Amino acid sequence: MLDPQVKKVLSRQTDSGTDSTETVTVAEARRVFSESRNNFKEIVKTVSSVKNLSIDSPYGKIPIRIYTPEGDGPFPVLVFFHGGGFVLGDLNATDNICKYFANGAECIVVSVDYRLAPEHRFPAAVDDAYFATQWVEKNAYTFKGDPLRIAVGGESAGGNLAAVVSLLARTNKTPALQFQLLIYPCVQFGMETQSMIDCGEKYNLTVSEMKWFGDHYFSDNIQMTNKLASPLLAENLEGLPPALVVTAEFDPLRDEGEQYADRLASFGVRVRKKCYPGMVHSFFNYSGEVDQSKIALDETVKELRNIFYSRLIES
């Protein structure tokens, strides 16, 4: 059953009268996406500082935002990628989530504003995400970060990027990642799972929207089967960092996220999967009015703290 608190959030979104993403221009979709995030009721945690930077890459400048918790450090670092189907979103989309993680897990969060499609199609977002993660390892000490304790994470499309960066880091043997946090990730395009059939036209992420995102992100259908686009299709997942895969009961992406967690486990990767009942895609953004959202954030924070600080306790 759909959580009654989530039902109220979805009703409010419906009452706003905005058109479906796939029926408007990219510019209009981005505006609506940004405004919808401003309307979410979220718990706002405090951090010591929030700093916007721009890093130089072979692809141009990549904006990042660094969230630093209270204390002297060095702190572990979570490199985080926002959602939005590779077409929408920016650093503001997950601002409060990043603050929540930085505050609760006592880690620095580096949020990455990767290039968006259709102006920059696949693999532009992947290139930016991986470069930014490498930059974090090389420059961690300049912002109180610990280069030996780096994790990647993201929600939805950002979860895809976190999974892909983990694959690239394993292949290239750098950076040495400690963890991957995959929040309702998109890990395979064009997959007809049961959750897509059951949930694909009912809630705040639809199959039609996902097709619209894919049409803008990819230049052709062949790119969808690339493991850097659909990590679920990677032949070998051995040697990847431990993972937490979060899914939502009424999310079309639920099944593929759970299948990715199962495949990771089959290759010997330490993984925990957690499906939150009654929840929908993007529910991490509802912490101010949905109890399960706050519970999920707190449980994720606990997982991050355990990963980041267990070695220090053991030593």
UniProtKB/TrEMBL annotation:
Keywords: Hydrolase. Residues 1-21 are annotated as: Disordered. Residues 78-284 form the Alpha/beta hydrolase fold-3 domain. Belongs to the 'GDXG' lipolytic enzyme family. It comes from the Bacteria. Residues 11-21 have a biased composition (Polar residues). This is Acetylhydrolase. The keyword Lipid biosynthesis does not apply.
